[in-house]
């Protein structure tokens, strides 16, 4: 569990402390996720709701790995990509999906820590493995849907000059553009809100433990 706590600290710094990920934090995050996934295969790690959330958090870095491996293959072997704009948008959106999934899962871990600290008995029926798996699944579905919307918007913008000038095509382009813009704004403010909430939660937990 000590290693898992260190991993959570690393992820909190990567996603909720740093304003944006850099090469060093991304590399350390990938190593931490790989090590965590190995640890979670051990029989010594009990199946708890927190462990389920941490496992899903580590799996989120698969999206980053796919992006990095794709870029390395293209750069190393000189693979010609049929649509450079599509590929670059996809890699960027995968990074965004990884960030959003990680922030949401880290916030779930923080909220669970808050319940354990202040409402250990009352919240026991909520802190179950089943609920943790359901929460992780919902987060993945929502963020992947968001990624698909962003990708569709980028694709339509890239091919807007070649699209037929039908009313339906114009309406589709405008709808996807407006929806993507609203979702990006919402994601930005959600990111700020999650940072504030996480700081408040661990502030309360820290001073509660200090008073004891």
TrEMBL record:
Transmembrane domains' residue ranges: 12-40, 52-77, 97-119, 171-203
Gene Ontology terms: cellular component: plasma membrane
Keyword Coiled coil assigned: no
Membrane topology designation: Multi-pass membrane protein
Protein's cellular compartments: Membrane
GO terms for biological process, alphabetical: phospholipase C-activating G protein-coupled receptor signaling pathway; positive regulation of Rho protein signal transduction
Highest taxon, organism lineage: Eukaryota
One Gene Ontology molecular-function label: G protein-coupled receptor activity
Keywords linked to the UniProt accession: G-protein coupled receptor, Glycoprotein, Membrane, Receptor, Transducer, Transmembrane, Transmembrane helix
Pfam family, one: 7tm_1
Domain G-protein coupled receptors family 1 profile: 32-212
Name of the protein described by the UniProt record: CXCR3 protein
Protein encoded by which gene: Cxcr3
